[in-house]
Specification:
Blueprint lengths: L2 H6 L16 H27 L3 H12 L4 E3 H8 L3 H13 L3 E6 L2 E9 L1 H22 L6 H15 L4
Antiparallel strand pairs: 1-3, 2-3
GO biological process, one term: response to stress
GO molecular function: DNA binding; DNA-binding transcription factor activity
Protein name: DNA-binding transcriptional regulator, MarR family
Length: about 160
């Protein structure tokens, strides 16, 4: 065998034949779902353990805290979290029971129901944000130098799949 044959033997002509070089769409989808599920579970567990909040409850508190006047309509919260109206009603109901949010109607517009943060809700949202953000940042450090590339790619997919109304 010639020396140049040794270099090319067992090297596929098509780089896509190399494991991991060009993943199938199904594999990419599986990885996205697994990462989402696992990170969500870890963060949800930490928020329950340390702040008596579900991840969904935390996200609702965060959205309300970021809204003008720390007040948001049920529809705004539902849209921000990707929840149904029933889902957001249930989530906000639990936050009301914990004294973190109050439901109210604004004078002059009795049609829309708003969720407004209480002082306790503001404090819980601040404390839980530290836990959430630090844990997510820690887990995502595993992306290493690929973080910007992955973020950009996922942003393109997200933008392409955004529902147009």
């Amino acid at each position: 065998m010639r020396s140049d044959d040794v270099l090319t033997t067992a090297v596929p002509a098509d780089p896509a034949a190399l494991a991991g070089a060009a993943p199938l769409a199904a594999e990419t989808w599986l990885r996205i779902v697994q990462v989402h599920d696992r990170i969500t579970h870890r963060v949800d567990s930490a928020l329950h353990r340390e702040h008596d909040l579900s991840l969904t409850g935390f996200e609702a508190l965060r959205r309300i805290a970021e809204a003008p006047g720390e007040r948001a309509t049920m529809g705004e919260v539902a849209e921000a979290l990707g929840l149904s109206r029933a889902g957001v009603t249930s989530t906000v109901g639990r936050l009301v029971e914990q004294g973190l949010v109050v439901r109210e109607r604004r004078p002059g517009d009795r049609r829309l129901l708003h969720a407004r943060l209480t002082e306790a809700g503001r404090e819980r949202a601040r404390a839980a944000a530290v836990t959430h953000d630090e844990l997510v940042a820690h887990l995502l450090t595993l992306l290493g130098d690929d973080a910007a590339v992955v973020t950009d790619a996922l942003a393109r997919v997200s933008a392409a799949t955004r529902v147009r109304r």
